[in-house]
Amino acid sequence: MKKTKTKAFPQWPHSDGREIELVSDVFSSGNWWRMTGEKVKIFERKFADLHDVKYCLGVTNGTHAIEIALIALGIKSGDEVIIPAVTFISTGSAVIYVNATPVLVDIDPETYCMTPEAFEKAITSNTKAVIPVHMAGHSCDMEKICEIAKRHNIKVIEDAAHAHGGQCNNKMLGSFGDMSIFSFQNGKIMTCGEGGALITNSEELYEKAYLIHGVGRPDGDRIYEHRVLGSNYRMNEFSAAILIAQQERLNEMNKRRDKNALLLDDKLSVIKGIKPQGRKEYATLITHYMYMFYYDSNYFNGLSRKDFIDLLIAEGIPSFVCFPVLSDTVFFKNNDFYGRINEFDQLKSNDLSNSRNIAANVVWLPHYTLLGDEHDINEIAKAIKKIQEEANNR
């Protein structure tokens, strides 16, 4: 049977002659290392400016960015770090890698983001940091979260891996926390294949992070002066060159995705059993790293979520299941933490009912499905309707 999708979605990663130009500059310069080149420094300045902060540090990936932020903020063994129960595994694993304990809290059933109420309820005398995740580019309620954190002397690390250029109450995401992290992995809305960044307004935290990311050596060091225990988390010049080009078209792509997401919300509103991720008024610019929606199999004659996704893919619509609740992953269940923390028992005190419902029933489409035209959006909705009709006619 003929599939619904009649033309390909825009290719991702997207690139053009600008990436080639800047990478060629690096290649011909012979300066491929951040210590001798200029592209990483240029990228860092431009990315900091985009997010209205003073400092940016380009690093190897978003996972390492979280680890560096935690270390720079002094998070250590015995400390607790509050994180949302549904997020990519790195938000939790980075906490474990610095020997601290992740405390999972529930998320909003509409936005899939950590709620201020769940955060505050989970605070104990051992809580030293919180990592709100801007899920799919929808901002957390950062003003309330930061107010709670300040009152309890808790550090805030924004996980903005999905939210390059996003906003909360017209303020740039990444500019609220003590430190904030971004990912440039291949699927992200800005990508160099693999990369990450930290941003901050604190000179002290930036300098700590810089030492950690460069095996403890200060800028310009020629005598192997390792001031702190660090590792090699440095971004290379080729990655930075690509990111400079990627950032130049970010704003236009963010606007296009949001416009198409609103259109798709409207198209799906008439399909029973499909409920898109909500949007709160404070989320003044949503970047839509993922287009997420609830799937209710009761309106599809019991068709499982897995089978629904398989059928969407067969119709030409790339589709995925939501992240699991972190503690449901294999290594969490096995308490296999390489001795970095003891047995994980935080779930005993926290209600994760929203998180479990979302993990079990949400589907997401990659952001490049929102980079096309109205025809592409219509075909997404048409494919879902077709699957529903065929399931209910069985």
Q: Decide which structural class fits the backbone.
A: alpha/beta
Mean pLDDT: 97
H/E element order: HHEHEHEHEHEEEEEHHHEEHEHHEH
- Sum up the overall morphology in one term: globular
Distance between the termini: 16 Å
**Helix content, binned percent:** 25-40%
Largest sheet report: 7 strands, mixed
Strand order of the largest sheet: 1-9-8-5-4-2-3
What is the name of the CATH architecture of the largest domain?
3-Layer(aba) Sandwich
Q: CATH superfamily assignment of the largest domain? A: Type I PLP-dependent aspartate aminotransferase-like (Major domain)
Q: How many structural domains?
A: 2
What CATH calls the topology of the largest domain is: Aspartate Aminotransferase, domain 2
